[in-house]
Design brief:
single chain
């Protein structure tokens, strides 16, 4: 909401007509969301398939075993580096969410 309000106020401040402000805002947001929405949607589908197939759990368990339970934060940093290099930030974030939940579940105290 802040971005919308500031965009309108900036347009008014520089003397743009209201119709032109709305057209400019719509064109800019449309281009940006059109590009990002597809990437996020496909990344979400891939992350869901990874979570449902057990791939996220396997990655989490392997890394926690490799780094040790006390160093789970380093395991997450390693997988973030591996996942982060070849993909956009949005897709990497969506892919890491199920892994983070699985690591948290593995790391939860046994009495929970």
């Amino acid at each position: 909401m802040t971005l919308v309000v500031v965009s309108v106020l900036l347009g008014v401040a520089v003397g743009m007509p209201m119709g032109r402000i709305l057209e400019s805002f719509e064109a800019g947001v449309g281009r940006t969301l059109g590009h990002i929405a597809l990437v996020v949607a496909l990344g979400t589908m891939l992350a869901k398939m990874m979570a449902e197939s057990g791939g996220a759990e396997r990655v989490a368990l392997t890394l926690v075993r490799l780094f040790g339970e006390k160093n789970a934060h380093w395991a997450m940093a390693a997988i973030a580096m591996i996942v982060g290099f070849p993909v956009f930030f949005e897709v990497g974030f969506v892919l890491l969410v199920p892994i983070a939940f699985n690591v948290a579940r593995v790391q939860a105290p046994r009495w929970c």
